[in-house]
Amino acid sequence: MADPALEARGLTKRYGDFVALNNVDFRLQRGEVRALIGSNGAGKSTLIKILTGAVAPTAGVMRLNGEAAPFGDPGEMIRRGVGCIYQHSNLAPAMTVLDNIFLGRQPTRGFGLVDRRRQRREATALLAHYGVDLDLDAAAGALPTVKQKEVEIMKALALDASVLLMDEPTGWLAATDVRRLHDTIRQLKSRGVGVVYISHMLDEIFSVCDTMTILRDGVVVAESDVAAVTRTDVVRLMVGERLAKESGEAAAAARRPRGDGRVRLAVRDFTRRGVFQNISFDLHAGEILCITGLIGSKRTELLRALFGADPHDEGRVEIDDRLIRPRSPASAMAEGLGLVPEDRHRDGLMLGMSVAENLVMTTLARFVRVGLLDRGAVRAAAAKSIDALGVQPRDGRRATRLLSGGNQQKVLVGKWLNRRPEVLILDEPTVGVDVGAKAEIYAILRAERDRGTAVLVVSSDLEEVMTIADRIGVMASGRLTAIHDATDVTLSRLVAEIGAEP
Predict the structure, then answer these.
(1) Fewest C-beta atoms under 10 Å: which of 113, 191, 357, 483?
(2) What pTM value is reported for the model?
(3) For the segment 28-57, what is each residue's pLDDT rounded down to a tens digit?
């Protein structure tokens, strides 16, 4: 039998007394797509860092295509054929696709000049070999996100990568783009490339992966063919029997009937010409209203306009029967609105600042005494939030960038909860976080709803919508086409309405 493309045995990584990985075995065959699954803190990031050479393990061995591989040398791992596609783009946006593919290693001719003809010839052959269609002369930053992913894949394959690690590659892609990316992955598989697919999206794992490795608390708890397990099996293995049972029971028991509270937010004929038209709905105090729809249905644009981040042309917005005019985020905040944006890295958090500093960002004025910031009060308030939100590790001084994605998202939500908004708006609140963190965020939102806050959520995850919503709205092509009580609508009906013409 041929040697695996990648094989690691006995990988252990300790940070002081903390064991991030414990005796992990991992194998990837040529032409195999293997899912790597686990909750935040399970050890996925540590394993990926070891496989790419970013860190060295405390113990263990690794082989690539049958030969011993070094640890702690990213450059050598690239030369040995290990490529990695990260969730956030590593492309030079102003450069062409062609120059990005060959960045740092352009073929040259006499006097050190770049050999453009050879560069184009090699790139054209590469794209043809893997069945990928890209405009080599387009600026990478002007491409749709899915095409940028394809550029990154081609960049890795141009270095003769035989192993490709893909870390949450579809976090911000539309469903059609996810399918296109999966088609590309299948092309790689047919050419013998081994792919490690790291994702929290079970739909994707069951669609494109052949096998899976599940980590929990730094240990491999299962390896399986994808066809041999169910979603329920995967969730239970990821988070343990107790949390799987609790999250399922919570979904069934936590809904509240429409009209528990008075109308908190009333929106009438809200319009931004050419973007969304005549949006009207009521949101009650103590209610979670989820708006779903295809990416491109203008849900995010609606939220941004309600929050004053983007302009609107017509319509009326009231909070508790009081007319408001959200002309800027500052004015919207003053009126009692809070917005948790979709992209926590770009719009939501200051990653270089501490957890405590991020948590008090929207309430900083409360901690100023005679013109000076009361840092003791900041630490105390942050510690209270960290405990309430279940942020791990429980260290307010820690840089936010060092937290896992799920814990960063808790900090982002907590930053707005500390302001005690009348209306809390969230755009894709669990994108890129694992099943366990999702369950915790759902519990946080339900608790806020039970306090009487009106909660408005935009989500493309229909499982999420069916789990947390008291009522469900559907948007298509900039129009709100339906609103249902969650108890009165089925998943199949939602799918049909989302895909219907408005």
Answers:
(1) 113
(2) 0.59
(3) 999 999 999 987 668 898 999 999 999 999
